[in-house]
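Progress note, sequence design subtask.
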């Protein structure tokens, strides 16, 4: 058995399409490695727990987790996004790209973001998908951002009222996790789950997380764009429901852990993984620009590409 877990001469594993995977898994403490061909986490007592890494969209490593070179290689070959996060996921330190964005999709995404009219059409489509109605006419991106912010603020207030939660505003400090109140901690943990899933889908589809449309200037700008479309049908109601149970003394578990498990179940129930990539394509198609073609002077490749495996963004 080789160090990477495969037998010599065997073809590399074919990545499972993201729509057929489980959503996320958090690893808080332990050593991740590949032993006897299996992706495992080993605790301080030497107990191995097998992780079906090829069936996950995103693996989130919290403080206390260590990962070997062989494990990173296997996750990359399987097309599983590995992220190194802070406590409860409120900070992202680094992310391993599961495949590699395709140049044609990168150029397409960049062109849409750089052309003002196309960018506005994409933002309007995101607004429509998020709120279920067309965006107001003759509004700039800045104006739509303001309208969206006011609606989001109101939706938070309505969710708080419906679940009996004392709510002031969305406020948290990633450097002082315990300084936030329970509703804000629940929201932070829930949105971290959604961001990880959105980033995995963006990379699997061959796009870049940093090239956003409504958001800009951040390494995950497009992640925030995509996640916001689904936030109020998934993680926001879950966060306030669990915060409400905690406020009433009806929650037996720790709130952040309860939120994570509820998000996992919601992602499965709403078929979110199956919907993410088609939704990304729908948003970008609203820009109305064709996919770019290679320039005639481009140097052809020196070898034949093998048949693609998994999603289009996976190296395979």
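Output:
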């Amino acid at each position: 058995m080789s160090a990477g877990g495969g037998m010599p001469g065997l073809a590399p594993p074919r990545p499972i399409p993201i729509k057929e995977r489980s959503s996320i898994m958090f690893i808080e403490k332990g050593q991740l490695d590949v032993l006897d061909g299996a992706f495992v986490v080993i605790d301080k007592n030497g107990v191995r727990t097998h992780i079906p890494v090829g069936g996950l969209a995103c693996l989130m490593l919290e403080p206390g987790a260590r990962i070997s070179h062989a494990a990173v290689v296997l996750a990359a070959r399987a097309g599983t996004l590995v992220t190194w996060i802070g406590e409860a996921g409120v900070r992202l330190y680094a992310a391993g790209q599961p495949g590699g964005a395709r140049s044609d999709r990168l150029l397409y995404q960049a062109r849409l973001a750089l052309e003002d009219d196309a960018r506005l059409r994409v933002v309007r489509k995101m607004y429509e998908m998020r709120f279920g109605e067309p965006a107001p006419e003759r509004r700039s991106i800045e104006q739509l951002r303001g309208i969206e912010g006011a609606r989001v603020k109101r939706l938070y207030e309505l969710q708080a009222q419906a679940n009996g939660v004392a709510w002031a505003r969305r406020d948290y400090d990633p450097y002082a996790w315990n300084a936030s109140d329970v509703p804000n901690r629940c929201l932070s943990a829930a949105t971290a789950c959604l961001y990880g899933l959105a980033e995995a889908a963006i990379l699997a589809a061959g796009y870049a997380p940093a090239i956003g449309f409504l958001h800009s200037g951040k390494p995950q700008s497009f992640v925030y764009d995509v996640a916001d479309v689904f936030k109020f049908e998934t993680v926001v109601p879950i966060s306030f429901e669990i915060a409400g149970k905690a406020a009433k003394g009806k929650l037996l578990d720790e709130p952040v852990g309860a939120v994570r498990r509820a998000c996992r179940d919601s992602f499965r129930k709403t078929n979110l993984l199956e919907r993410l990539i088609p939704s990304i394509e729908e948003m970008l198609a609203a820009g109305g620009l064709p996919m770019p073609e290679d320039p005639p002077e481009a140097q052809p490749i020196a070898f034949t590409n093998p048949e693609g495996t998994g999603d289009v963004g996976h190296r395979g």
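The chain has two domains: 18-96, 103-285. Work on this subtask will continue into the next period as scheduled.
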